[in-house]
Write a structure and sequence with these properties.
Radius of gyration of chain A: 15 Å
Number of helices of chain A: 4
Number of domains of chain A: 1
Order of helices and strands of chain A: EHEEHEHH
Strand order of the largest sheet of chain B: 1-2
Number of strands of chain A: 4
Strand order of the largest sheet of chain A: 1-4
Structural class of chain A: alpha+beta
CATH architecture of chain A: 2-Layer Sandwich
Number of helices of chain B: 8
Largest sheet of chain A: 2 strands, antiparallel
Strand content of chain A: 15-25%
Radius of gyration of chain B: 21 Å
Strand content of chain B: 5-15%
Helix content of chain B: 40-55%
Order of helices and strands of chain B: HHHEHHHEHEEH
CATH class of chain A: Alpha Beta
CATH topology of the largest domain in chain B: Methane Monooxygenase Hydroxylase, Chain G, domain 1
Largest interface: A-B, 14 and 13 residues
CATH architecture of the largest domain in chain B: Up-down Bundle
Distance between the termini of chain A: 38 Å
Oligomer: heterodimer
Chain lengths: 106, 245
């Protein structure tokens, strides 16, 4: 479930508000969006991978709230870790082409 | 594995678990619907439906043309999502381009459930739980029998009647109510079709009809909201032969 929105680095772009399929975030005038409906989160990670500044963290447990802090997520270097793993970050863009799984049947 | 399935490893990485050497807890989840099999009926490979201008793609479009009565699973699902997304997007753009040159025609609302702020306020959380209580139990949805399906359908019909006159206090509440209404409608379509198919075929299993019946080698087309109708359609797949190959 969505756990953390780091309001210090959030740029108020509201991309998470648009990509969330279950309307978890609420846009706020002149400020970062808020996690308004946390229990609607279905743990799809869309917000996290779309966030251009890695300000969001989704915990893999879809049914419990752990109340993680920004500091704890930072300490474990979890912000942006999914984006990096799938090559959606500039530093790891080479990973976009490493999966040759689709060539197996060829 | 890690290259091909990065999503699979995400929860393990975040919990610090090595799935190859360490044990981890597993939870069984029934998704409720027969996964990815049913959906809006397509009239052709442009993904059109019988509502002019409405095109369906991915999970919303029935996958029967390529999978029959079984789930698409993995590669079929991905291929279906990408293909129908392209087909439907192209067809919708063509439709819009033609419509843009024509005078606007009046539209009218057919739906009732959760559309008006003036409607009766219902407890949305309770309504969601009520639908889940009908579609999650394996004794209703997996080990299907006429008696359990009929009893469930009566409760779902009662819930639908309440939802039809429902409304929300805000736009966010209305959206949530529309989603609950969609869940309820889908559950009723599912069980009407399940009752009509008195055999076991594909992912649909009837404990009171455990064998496949050659005479029912047809599709079931379900329609309606207040009153639901089920009719059969022969499997000829003229417009889908290309997709199935």
């Amino acid at each position: 479930m969505i756990e953390v929105l780091d309001t210090d680095i959030c740029t108020d772009c509201n991309l998470c508000v648009s990509v969330c399929p279950t309307n978890v975030f609420q846009a706020v005038p002149d400020g970062p969006p808020v996690i308004a409906r946390q229990d609607s989160c279905q743990t799809c990670y869309m917000c996290e991978i779309y966030c251009p500044v890695d300000a969001l963290y989704v915990d893999p447990d879809p049914s419990h709230v752990y109340g993680l802090s920004v500091e704890a997520v930072k300490k474990d270097r979890l912000f942006g870790s999914y984006r990096q793993a799938i090559g959606w970050a500039k530093e790891t863009r080479h990973l976009r082409h490493v999966d040759d799984h689709f060539r197996l049947p060829q | 594995m890690r290259r091909a399935q990065p999503n699979f490893f995400l929860p393990f990485n975040r919990r610090g678990i090595d799935p190859f050497t360490e044990r981890f807890q597993v939870t069984l989840r029934l998704e409720g619907t027969v996964r990815g099999t049913g959906g809006l009926r397509l009239l052709g490979l442009d993904c059109s439906t019988n509502v002019p201008g409405l095109y369906a793609a991915g999970d919303n479009a029935t996958r029967e043309p390529i999978c029959g009565g079984f789930t698409g699973g993995g590669s079929h699902n991905a291929a279906w999502a990408i293909s129908t997304g392209c087909f439907a997007g192209n067809a919708a753009a063509d439709f819009a381009a033609v419509r843009a040159t024509q005078p606007p025609s009046p539209v009218r609302r057919l739906g009732k459930a959760g559309f008006s702020k003036a409607g009766t306020v219902v407890d949305n959380e309770a309504a969601i739980k009520a639908v889940q209580a009908e579609v999650f139990p394996l004794d209703i949805n997996y080990f299907r029998t006429e008696s359990a399906l009929t009893a469930s359908l009566e409760r779902l019909d009662t819930l639908w009647q309440r939802l039809e006159s429902s409304g929300g206090v805000s736009d966010v509440a209305l959206l949530a109510l529309r989603q609950t209404a969609a869940m309820t409608a889908t559950a009723r379509w599912m069980y009407n079709a399940a009752l009509a198919r008195t055999e076991t075929r594909g992912m649909h299993r009837r404990d009171d009809f455990p064998k496949q019946d050659q005479a029912q080698h047809h599709r079931l087309i379900v329609s309606g909201l207040a009153n639901i109708a089920v009719r059969s359609e022969p499997v000829q797949a003229a417009s889908f032969r290309e997709a199935a190959e």
